[in-house]
Design goal:
Blueprint lengths: L16 H11 L2 H14 L3 E3 L33 H4 L34 H10 L5 H13 L10 H7 L8 H12 L11 H10 L8 H10 L1 H5 L3 H8 L3 H12 L21 E6 L2 E6 L7 E3 L1 H9 L5 H35 L1 H6 L9 H8 L3 H8 L3 E4 L2 E4 L7 E3 L5 E3 H14 L8 H10 L6 H10 L5 H4 L3
Parallel strand pairs: 2-5
Antiparallel strand pairs: 1-4, 2-3, 5-6, 7-8
Helix pairs in contact: 1-14, 4-5, 5-7, 8-9, 9-12, 16-17, 19-20
């Protein structure tokens, strides 16, 4: 091969450190952003938090930017966050984020906490054990069983296996464990320390007054025929037990209110705080989106070090200059982050006003491109602005992505969002006659009568996503 020198002209995209930081900050959640700010505060002496009683502008000396002054970063790099991947998928991936309700006052700026410390199941039982009149030996054995319970309150380990794990010097026999287990099962909440579902339900039924109608039939059902109960095979149950419809219905009602996981209410994992980036309320008859000031760090440039840098020219001056520039970048990029999030949120609110007024049934189809085109932003910028960003509405706290979803055509030429269709399915099931529950085909026909064409397979897909049982398991007497 012959070596040669050649000149070639080409264009290459290069992201400046400032732009890289802007993109990174935009895609961070509020919690991650706050951690990033805390790290920068530790590393950069030119940054400091403004005190609440100081009158420094938000984010320090940088004045609040306008849309024109701080446009969102334009990105021409390949977009790896396409509309099909991030939006048109199953909206129920984000369906759990709105479990907490907001206050009734639409002008209330406060928002509910998402986590609360709760006593664990084991702590609760140990506390109950300490109030009993049992001797120390029995308490010790019961305490060992309490520690062996799982988070749902079940004793999943066999007693024979458990006794082999205990130190021999304790001199605990199998009879001791069996006696302690009975005492534990009657210690507090009925159903705790059961070894299987049938025993759990049986313990709860036995705790009812003996004169409870059809109590014995219900005990027989859960202890001997629980598989038939789960399958709703009422014909076979009536044939085996020679009971009437009314008797079986009463027993079924008793079973339906039992708790299959009696310990679960204690051992909830402590949920993370969800800090909404946006607060949505109604002002002068119109819905508006506002930044949540609690989620906005109040940063400013440290005037002391800035004055030193300006007045003195020492050997540390160059490093302070770098810190000063980085501080200004961070303040500006944070302001740009909030500005972009606010613009995207307001665009979402304007399109989902019917949801805010009427709930999920009013949700309209929405895709990233629609927001991006209106705001003249890249789709990936909108995607970053909606990922792990939350807004507090009068209907609860929702991730921005919850408001996006595909749509199905209607006979009138319009479209209906998949979220609204799911809500319609929920309403149909909640209003159905449980003796003759609606099949997927029948629900498809009912929606078609309302001008919404949905295939039976789509109904089945949405129903399963909503954790609604099939028709044969929803049937009751």
């Amino acid at each position: 091969m012959k070596a040669s020198l050649q000149l070639r002209l080409s264009q290459q995209l290069t992201l400046t450190p400032q732009l890289q930081q802007a993109i990174r900050l935009l895609q961070l959640s509020t919690q991650d952003m706050q951690q990033e700010v805390s790290r920068m505060l530790e590393e950069n002496p030119m940054l400091e938090l403004a005190e609440d009683n100081q009158t420094a502008p938000y984010l320090g000396d940088a004045r609040v930017a306008t849309h024109a002054e701080t446009p969102a970063p334009a990105e021409t790099a390949p977009n790896d966050e396409r509309e099909d991947d991030s939006i048109t998928g199953d909206p129920l991936e984000w369906g759990t984020i709105h479990a907490t309700r907001s206050r009734d006052d639409e002008n209330d700026d406060g928002f509910p906490e998402q986590a609360a410390l709760q006593a664990s199941l084991r702590d609760h039982l140990h506390s109950q054990l300490s109030t009993t009149q049992l001797d120390d030996h029995d308490r010790k054995i019961i305490g060992l069983l309490i520690d062996a319970l799982d988070d749902n309150g079940y004793l999943t380990q066999d007693l024979n296996e458990l006794i082999e794990l205990l130190p021999a010097e304790l001199n605990i026999t199998l009879d001791d464990l069996e006696t302690a287990l009975v005492q534990l099962q009657h210690l507090d909440m009925p159903g705790l320390a059961a070894r299987n579902l049938a025993e759990c339900l049986t313990l709860q039924l036995k705790a009812l007054p003996q004169d409870t109608p059809q109590r014995d039939l219900a005990i027989c059902l859960v202890s001997q025929h629980i598989a038939l109960v789960a399958a709703h095979d009422f014909a076979k149950i009536k044939k085996l037990l020679r009971c009437t419809d009314d008797q079986l219905r009463a027993a079924q009602q008793l079973i339906s209110v039992l708790n299959p996981k009696p310990g679960a209410e204690f051992d909830h994992a402590v949920a993370d705080y969800v800090i909404p980036d946006i607060v949505v309320d109604k002002y002068k008859g119109k819905w508006r989106a506002r930044l949540n000031t609690e989620a906005m760090p109040k940063l400013r440039v440290n005037h002391l070090y800035a004055n030193i840098l300006q007045q003195r020219d020492d050997r540390n001056g160059s490093q302070l200059s770098v810190h000063l520039q980085e501080a200004k970048w961070l303040i500006k990029n944070l302001q740009q982050r909030f500005d972009t999030i606010l613009r995207v949120a307001q665009a979402i609110v304007l399109r989902q006003e019917k949801f805010l007024e009427h709930g999920a049934i009013g949700m309209r189809p929405l895709v990233l491109r629609e927001i991006a085109d209106e705001l003249e932003l890249h789709e990936s910028t909108v995607s970053r602005s909606t990922t792990q960003k939350f807004m507090l509405t009068p209907r609860g706290i929702y991730e921005f992505k919850y408001f996006f979803g595909s749509g199905l055509a209607t006979e009138s030429g319009g479209s209906c969002s998949s979220t609204a269709i799911r809500e319609l399915i929920k309403q149909l099931v909640s209003a159905e006659d449980t003796r003759k529950p609606l099949t997927d085909s029948r629900m498809s026909e009912i929606l078609a009568q309302q001008g919404i064409v949905v295939a039976r397979r789509t109904i089945a897909k949405y129903r399963e996503a909503l954790h609604i049982l099939p028709v044969n398991l929803r049937k009751s007497l």
